[in-house]
Write a structure and sequence with these properties.
With 719 residues, this protein is α+β, with helices and mostly antiparallel strands. It has 18 helices and 28 strands. The strands form 7 sheets. Strands 1, 2, 3, 4, 5, 6, 7 and 8 form an 8-stranded antiparallel beta sheet that branches. It has a 5-stranded mixed beta sheet with strand order 11-12-13-14-15, covered by helices on one side. Strands 17, 19, 22, 23 and 25 form a 5-stranded antiparallel beta sheet that branches. The C terminus is likely disordered. Keywords: Cytoplasm, Golgi apparatus, Immunity, Innate immunity, Phosphoprotein, Signal transduction inhibitor. GO terms for molecular function: protein sequestering activity; RIG-I binding. InterPro entries: CRAL-TRIO_dom (IPR001251), CRAL-TRIO_dom_sf (IPR036865), CRAL/TRIO_N_dom (IPR011074), CRAL/TRIO_N_dom_sf (IPR036273), GOLD_dom (IPR009038), GOLD_dom_sf (IPR036598), PRELI/MSF1_dom (IPR006797), SEC14/CRAL-TRIO_domain (IPR051064).
C-alpha cells in the first residue's frame, strides 16, 4: 500500500532570497538533523546569467533503525539523491528527492517547493508532498514502513525550526537582507523588476477568517471566504499552517496530511457546498484519521444533509410553540474550556406529551437545529477565546426522572435521535455532565448506551444525588458564576422548566404525517408520496425535438422504480389518488397519477428509458435527450424490495420498524428542468445546468447506457 503525505502551506515572513540563504546553510550537513550525516555534490549547472542554478546531491543518512534490521539489510547508511532547481528570476526553488538505497524494494519520492507568497512579495511559502511504497523488505515491510514514517514526520516538525535557526544565525552575522537577482552588466529595467515580482501563479493560500489575516499582517492577504466555508471546487486551494494551528488546533504532520488530502478530494469530486475544515476534521477524528472510513461516513452525511436541507434549518424552520414552551433545554454561557454549554432538564420534560403533540420528526428536527446552533456557537467562541473550540458541553439534570420517561415510543424516538446525531455530528460533544441521577437511571442507561459510540461514552460524567457539589464535581468544569440557579448556583437560567404537555395539544398520526410532509417542501424540490399501486407521475410537454429533460431526485423513504414514457397525446387532467385502499389521507397534490388505466403500453404510450431501481437514501441525477416532440411522463413507482434489506447502515430493529407509517409507502423529493440542446453543456454523464445547484460526487458515479444512442441516464449514488 502506498503511503502519501501532503503538507499545509508554511509561510515564512521573510523574503525569498533571505530564506534561500538560510536554506543553503543546511549543506553539506546539518547538526540539527542528526540522521543527516553528509552530502556530496554529484552534478551542478548554472546558467550564464546566473538566474538558473541546478545542483544534485547524494545525501548520506543514518536511519534510526534496530541494529538487527540493519544487519539483515546489510547496510549502515541509506543514500538519497536530491535535486534542487533554483530559478532566481521567478523566485522559486523546486526540490526533488528519491532513495538510491534499496530502490528496487522501497520507492520513496519527495517534492518540495519554496515560492513567493501570492499576496505579499516579501513573504515566502513552502509546501511538500511525499509517497512511500514498500514492495518487499525481507519480511519486515510493516516495520520499515513505521520507521520511515516516524523519521519523516520527525524531520517535518524540525523543518521550520531549522530555517528559523539559520535565519537567526544570519541576523547575528548582520545579514538581514539579500538583494534580488538582476541581469548581469545591466541595471534592472521596469519590465525586469515586474518579472521578478511576479508571484507564483500555482499557489493560493486560503485564509478562511478575517481575524487570521490581521494576525498575520496589517494588510489583507486574500479575499476572505469567511468562517462559513472555504472556496469550493478549486483544486489549488491550500491550507495555511498558521491557520490550522489557530482554528483547528495542534495536529501531527500526518493528521494535517489526512485533512488536506480529504479536503482536496472533496474539492475535486464534490460540486456542491464544501464542508468546513472543522467539520471534515471531526469525521477524521471520529475514524481515527482513517481517510477511507472518514470519506465514506462523510459522503453519507452530505447526502443526508442535502435530502433534509439541514444547511438551511436555522433560517427556514422555526420550532412550534409547544417546543418553545415545554422542551426543557437551552444554551447557557460556556464552560471553563470555552465550550458552549447546553443545559437539558430531562427530568422535568414530558417526553410522551411532546411526542404525542409533535411527532418524532419535529423532535428530531429540533435536535438538529440545536446541533447546528452548537456548530455556530463553536465558531463564535473560537474567535472570542482565540483558540480552536470544536465541541460543546452538555449538562443534563435528571431530577424528576421516573418510569414515565421509559415510555417505549419515547425511548424509541430517543434512540433514533441518537442514531442520527452520532452519524452526522461526530466529535461535537466535548463533555456530558449527568447530574442528580435517580435509581431509575441505570434502566434508561442500559437501553441507550449500546447505541452510543465508545469515544462518546468516555466523555460522560455521572453524578448521583448531590455528588456534583463535592470534589471533582461541577466546579471543576463550570465557573461558579454561571452555575444555574436550579442547581443551587448564582446564575439565573432561562431554560424552560418543562412540565406536562396538555392533552388538548395531542394530535393523531394522520395529522402528524401531514405536517411532516410539509417540512420537505421549503426548497426548490417538490415532494411526493408513492404507494403500492399508486405511482407518482409528472407531465412534461416537449415542443422541440432534441430538448434535454433533466432531473434530480432523492429517495427519502422506501425503494422506487423510475420510468420515463412518451405519448403523442396528452393524458387527461391529473387526478389525485384518494388512497382509500391504503387507509391514509393523501395531502393535496402530493400523489398524482396521469396514465389512464385503459391506456396500453406500446399503443398509447411507450417507454423511452429502461426502468431504474433506486434504493432508499440515494440521490439520482440524470438527463434524457428527447427524440420526438410530444408528452413525456416521469414516473416514480413503488418497488417491492424492503428498504432495510438493501442498506448496510446499522439499524435498531425494533425502533426503525415503528418509524414507518406504512410499509407500502415511499417518499421522494424531486426537481425537473427542460433545457434546450444548445444550452446543455457537458456530456450526458456530466449534467451542468445554470439553474441547478445540486450536490454531485462524481467519484461515486455509475451510469447506465440505454438502447437509444440519443439518451442516457446518469446516476450518482451517495454512500
Amino acid at each position: 500500500m502506498v503511503q502519501k503525505y501532503q503538507s499545509p502551506v508554511r509561510v515564512y515572513k521573510h523574503p525569498f532570497e533571505l530564506i534561500m540563504a538560510a536554506y543553503e546553510r543546511r549543506f553539506p550537513t546539518c547538526p540539527l538533523i542528526p540522521m543527516f550525516v553528509d552530502s556530496d555534490t554529484v552534478n551542478e549547472f548554472r546558467s550564464e546569467d546566473g538566474a538558473i542554478h541546478v545542483i544534485e546531491r547524494r545525501c548520506k543518512l543514518d536511519i534510526d533503525a534496530p541494529r538487527l534490521l540493519k544487519k539483515i539489510a546489510g547496510v549502515d547508511y541509506v543514500y538519497f539523491i536530491q535535486k534542487n532547481s533554483l530559478n532566481s528570476r521567478e523566485r522559486t526553488l523546486h526540490i526533488e528527492a528519491h532513495n538510491e538505497t534499496f530502490s528496487n524494494r522501497v520507492i520513496i519520492n519527495e517534492l518540495c517547493c519554496y515560492s513567493v507568497h501570492p499576496e505579499n512579495e516579501d513573504w515566502t511559502c513552502f509546501e511538500q508532498s511525499a509517497s512511500l511504497d514498500i514492495k518487499s523488505f525481507f519480511g519486515f515491510e510493516s516495520t520499515v514502513e513505521k520507521i520511515a514514517m516516524k523519521q519523516y514526520t520527525s524531520n517535518i516538525k524540525k523543518g521550520k525550526e531549522i530555517i528559523e535557526y539559520y535565519l537567526r544565525q544570519l541576523e547575528e552575522e548582520g545579514i538581514t537582507f539579500v538583494p534580488r537577482w538582476t541581469p548581469p552588466a545591466a541595471a534592472p529595467s521596469l519590465e525586469t523588476s515586474l518579472s521578478c515580482k511576479k508571484p507564483a501563479a500555482s499557489l493560493t493560500v486560503v485564509v478562511p477568517d478575517p481575524t487570521l489575516k490581521e494576525g498575520l499582517s496589517g494588510e489583507p492577504l486574500s479575499t476572505p471566504s469567511g468562517a462559513a466555508e472555504p472556496t469550493a471546487g478549486t483544486p489549488d486551494d491550500k491550507l495555511d499552517a498558521d491557520y490550522i494551528k489557530r482554528y483547528l488546533g495542534d495536529l501531527t504532520p500526518l493528521q494535517e496530511s489526512c485533512l488536506i488530502r480529504l479536503r482536496q478530494w472533496l474539492q475535486e469530486t464534490h460540486k456542491g457546498k464544501i464542508p468546513k475544515d472543522e467539520h471534515i476534521l471531526r469525521f477524521l477524528r471520529a475514524r481515527d484519521f482513517n481517510i477511507d472510513k472518514a470519506r465514506e461516513t462523510m459522503c453519507q452525511s452530505l447526502t443526508w444533509r442535502k435530502q433534509h436541507q439541514v444547511d438551511y434549518i436555522l433560517d427556514t424552520w422555526h420550532p412550534p410553540q409547544v417546543l418553545q414552551d415545554y422542551y426543557a433545554g437551552g444554551w447557557h454561557h460556556h464552560d471553563k474550556d470555552g465550550r458552549p454549554l447546553y443545559v437539558l432538564r430531562l427530568g422535568q420534560m414530558d417526553t410522551k406529551g411532546l411526542v404525542r403533540a409533535l411527532g418524532e420528526e419535529a423532535l428530531l428536527r429540533y435536535v438538529l437545529s440545536i446541533n447546528e446552533e452548537g456548530l455556530r456557537r463553536c465558531e463564535e467562541n473560537t474567535k472570542v477565546f482565540g483558540r480552536p473550540i470544536s465541541s460543546w458541553t452538555c449538562l443534563v439534570d435528571l431530577e424528576g426522572l421516573n418510569m414515565r420517561h421509559l415510555w417505549r415510543p419515547g425511548v424509541k424516538a430517543l434512540l433514533r435521535i441518537i442514531e442520527v446525531v452520532e452519524a452526522n455530528y461526530p466529535e461535537t460533544l466535548g463533555r456530558l455532565l449527568i447530574l442528580r441521577a435517580p435509581r431509575v437511571f441505570p434502566v434508561l442507561w442500559t437501553l441507550v448506551s449500546p447505541f452510543i459510540d465508545d469515544n462518546t461514552r468516555r466523555k460522560f460524567l455521572i453524578y448521583a444525588g448531590n455528588d456534583y457539589q463535592g470534589p471533582g464535581g461541577l466546579l471543576d468544569y463550570i465557573d461558579k458564576e454561571i452555575i444555574p440557579d436550579f442547581l443551587s448556583g448564582e446564575c439565573m437560567c432561562e431554560v424552560p422548566e418543562g412540565g406536562l404537555v396538555p392533552k388538548s395539544l395531542y394530535r393523531t398520526a394522520e395529522e402528524l404525517e401531514n405536517e411532516d410532509l410539509k417540512l420537505w417542501t421549503e426548497t426548490i424540490y417538490q415532494s411526493a408520496s408513492v404507494f403500492k399501486g399508486a405511482p407518482h407521475e409528472i407531465l412534461i410537454q416537449i415542443v422541440d425535438a432534441s430538448s434535454v429533460i433533466t432531473w434530480d431526485f432523492d429517495v427519502c423513504k422506501g425503494d422506487i422504480v423510475f420510468n420515463i414514457y412518451h405519448s403523442k397525446r396528452s393524458p387527461q387532467p391529473p387526478k389525485k389518488d384518494s388512497l382509500g385502499a391504503h387507509s391514509i389521507t393523501s395531502p393535496g397534490g402530493n400523489n398524482v397519477q396521469l396514465i389512464d388505466r385503459v391506456w396500453q403500453l406500446g399503443r398509447d404510450y411507450s417507454m423511452v428509458e429502461s426502468p431504474l431501481i433506486c434504493k432508499e437514501g440515494e440521490s439520482v441525477q440524470g438527463s434524457h435527450v428527447t427524440r420526438w416532440p410530444g408528452f413525456y411522463i416521469l414516473q416514480w413507482k413503488f418497488h417491492s424490495t424492503p428498504a432495510c434489506a438493501a442498506t448496510n447502515l446499522p439499524r435498531v430493529d425494533d425502533v426503525l420498524a415503528s418509524l414507518q407509517v406504512s410499509s407500502h409507502k415511499c417518499k421522494v423529493m424531486y426537481y425537473t428542468e427542460v433545457i434546450g440542446s444548445e444550452d446543455f453543456r457537458g456530456s450526458m454523464t456530466s449534467l451542468e445546468s445554470s439553474h441547478s445547484g445540486f450536490s454531485q460526487l462524481s467519484a461515486a458515479t455509475t451510469s447506465s447506457s440505454q438502447s437509444h444512442s440519443s439518451s442516457m441516464i446518469s446516476r450518482w449514488r451517495f454512500c
